[in-house]
Amino acid sequence: MIKSVVSWGPLAIAGARSGIAALVIFCYLYIRDKRLPRLEWSALQIGTALCYAGVVSLFTIANKMTTAANAILLQYTAPVYVALLSYWVLRERVTAADWVTVGVVLGGMLLFFVDDLAPGNLTGNILSVLSGVFFALFTLLLRKQKDGSPLEAVMLGNIITALVGLPFYFQALPTAFEWGALVFLGLFQLGFSYIFYTIAIKKVTALEAILIPVIEPILNPVWVFLLLGEAPGPWALVGGVVVLGAVTVLSLYKARTSAAGLL
Hints:
Structural class: mainly alpha
Oligomer: single chain
């Protein structure tokens, strides 16, 4: 959908979808708390918001400059950075099972996208990697707010992104289809999804919070198959099974370990 909005540049697209997402989150917080959302303006909240703005802006730019496969694969190097920084930032220990899962997931994603990978645009690929770095930092800082209300930080990040995109909104007028794509992205890709994500971040480790969303790009050919009848290639099937299997096994292992610790 990002690639389908051709009238606007990437920062305008990022800003518009974030503006819609900010409105969705604002309404959710107002309904949930029965009052207007309140921002703390703490260093932690601002840092989280800036990292979020970095994720959504850099990924949108990269998606326009390189292939979609390159952009999503390079962004999802984020679990490695989370694994490296989890103990230093959160004092959450990364076990051998976690490291094995990270390796298997990255290998599975490489298999999954092997048919679609291309050299792409070097700048776009670099921006995709940077997006992954910001995604890792965002997840760590969001997890650090698990005892508070991390959703306000996401709302602030969307507001920042919308303001950054403001100068680029007037380059052209999107078509009705493009507006529909932007609304869909704002509602579902950033709005509702991050509401769920901030609820989940209170109950899982930072590494689990970054590994489980790897299912997102793996599901892409499923939607394509269901809607367009285009069957995924054999390597995509193998890679998808590897990723889903690794994430499922780790989740079951953590749940079993946690339950055993309560006995």
